[in-house]
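Handout, section 4.2: multi-component inputs.
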Amino acid sequence: MSSSVATKPRLAAAAPWVSTGARVVLGGVFLVAGGLKVIEPQAAVAAVRAYRLLPASVAPILGWGLPFAEIALGLLLLAGAATRVAAATTAVLLVVFMAAVISAAVRGLNIDCGCFGSGGDVAPRQTAYGIEIVRDFGLLLLALWLVWQPRSRFALDHLATGHLTEASQ
Amino acid sequence: MSGPKNMNARERARLATEQAAARKRDRRILIMMIAAFVVIVVAGGIAFQAWRTGRAPSTVPSASVSASPITITNGQPIPLGSPEATVTITLYEDFHCPHCADFEEQFGPTITQAQEAGTARVELYPMAFIDEGSVTAANAMACAAEAGFGQGYYLGLFANHTLQWSDPQLIDLATKVGGSPTEAFQTCVMRRVHADWVTSMNAAADTNGVAQTPTMLINGKEVDIASLTPDALQTMISDAAQK
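Output:
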């Protein structure tokens, strides 16, 4: 898995620490984003509706379910459990989020992304699509790094797969 | 060719292959367990939120602010409190806006106290832009004010702001706030009798330059809610009362 860095010892030594940092940032952001949405189920559904992409009957399922998915992914990333799968799922979600925000911008909607709770329609000048996309892109880079370098310090993955011994070679 | 040394090597290779396969299987089982965990969390979460938004409203202590039945007029806010009060607190709120619920939790008691003391009365502009529940709640608020239990209903709507506000919930709330869900009230809720008035509230907010909820004005002057504390609000109200 890490053959690409094995030839560069310095990178090989640093990579697990970079991955730990990526896990904490990405996991923390997802945990907070999910948590803020969970406490306001109505607003979460309204935020989904504001994108005007999904049929009315599907919006509540996404508005109620997605925050819990974010919390679960956030916990997995923070714990370092199934890091590669969790990071890949997170990356897919982030691409979907970015596509949704871009589509809202292209269609001329005036909405808040609802990324951290609230969301919904806003005044024309209050949109922040640029910042939202840049932020998601930054998180996407972290997620992709973790897909490439899932091995990290302080991770539950070690317990399950015995990577600890491999890493110390 | 089939010496013991050779056997050992083959044995070792077989063992290594088996171990690798076992490890792979373990990892796959672990990933499946984690996936199952995520699915259960999400499904449980959806069920939990469906319950949270669909349950019956909770009881709210009935308000002691006298509220005589009022007439709903398009473009006109709902008055709550004594007509003789010298201070007018104008509120623009959506019953499904989370910040409005926060506002109500933080400043509601101070405002209610001023209403009960007869120093202030509220002019309520219920806006409806978050979702369908904002509309049904704003309509029902008008129905309740018309029936004479507007004050209690207002507090009840915010105390239960996570509910989706279906017709049965809105009718149930009347009982929970010390009002009575008369047949007229039920019809008013179910037929959306004040739908035009709700639209007129949004239009009035637009006309008055209100772009966000909650917005509060004391005697016509907008208050900066972001840096407000309940004590500061209390002072503002008593200052306004002395002028």
